[in-house]
Amino acid sequence: MASPPSPAAPSRRRFLGTASAAAAALACGGAGPTSPAPSSAPATPAPPAGPPIPWRAFRGANGGVGLTEADVAALAAAGGNLIRLSFPDRPLMGLDAPHPFDETAFGHLERVLDWCEPRGVSVLVDPHRFPGTAHPYTMLGTDSFWRDFRWHDLAVRLWAEIARRCAARGTVLAGYDLLNEPEVPFPMPSGTSYDLNLLYRKLVSAVRSQDARHTIVLAGPRFVSGGRVHGYHEGLALLEVPPDENLCFETHTYDPTAFTFQGVEAPVDPDTGEPLDCTTCGACCRAGEGAMLLTPDDLLAWKRAGRADLAERTAPGHFGLHAFPTTLEGACVHLTTPGDRTLCAIYAVRAEVCREFQAGSWQCLEFRRDLRRHRQRG
Predict the structure, then answer these.
(1) What span, in angstroms and rounded, lies between the C-alpha atoms of 104 and 91?
(2) Cα-flanking dihedrals φ and ψ of residue 187, to 5°?
(3) I need a surface site. Which of 53, 95, 158, 216 has the fewest CB within 10 A?
(4) Which residue ranges make up each domain of the chain?
(5) What is Dmax (Cα atoms) for the chain?
(6) Does the domain at residues 14-254 carry the CATH identifier 3.20.20.80?
(7) What is the C-alpha to C-alpha distance for residues 322 and 206, in angstroms, rounded to an integer?
């Protein structure tokens, strides 16, 4: 087995540390590509001329399609000067064929740029989601996106269009955030659709075909090696720096969550106004097959507590770990529903992931949204 690389920032380029409002990572990679590598991006008109607009010292926040002009004004008043504008809930490109550009989403991007410019706030454009990806808030190693070059072609097309529309926006545009939280196999098979470095070179080329001035941001990937998930900061060591002098590198740091998510817990669901009561919810216990992960410490603790039956009743989980087995509906088998209540049958010896999960956290609210969407679909 190959040894994981030592974490090291790519040389001669700037480094961006930014936290993302994305859901927890859930899965990892598989086999090789199913189609030949595509040719490079088609020829396009020369991008606007002018000197590079370098990355500056920024402090800001994530924003989405719900961002308002009042939000921008409040950020500026608080001393913020950057919005990472993300589109997980209204993708800039349709997820289904024929994958049209979403003019409503692009219109929101233009409005936010207009709101930010007079207030000295810059925008980092983050599509966040592409055709071929399954989860709105993070990329999964099991996504179709990594199994066929045709999904990469769509990403290239989208980034060329974003850059075409934004190239002339000057300093209100901080740059282009190419991918959100990619996940790759380790070692990464060179020249295949799992080759993140190959994809980054194509995306950089697509942007530069339209915009030679603004910063391009490359995110470090997460990967699995040695029985554990290696975080995005470690994934930076897997990157080969594309031949471009205006790049910035990004990592998302979530641990320790008690620090990074302090103060974000909500006493009520902001979407519905309902009080957050775990015993009438259970959304986090319905995360789906392979997603509710168990650690080796969980298995050992169960055996020491005389519950070897729990350690023996597991299912394959993401990242090569064990997981709670689930019902056909994707609920943990230990979730019970007496009447209108949702209770845990093994609450006293529940797993670490369950003990540390915080009601009202952004993950909690996203699980609740996913459950509502699932029920609405019937």
Answers:
(1) 10
(2) -70, 155
(3) 95
(4) 14-254, 278-377
(5) 70
(6) yes
(7) 40
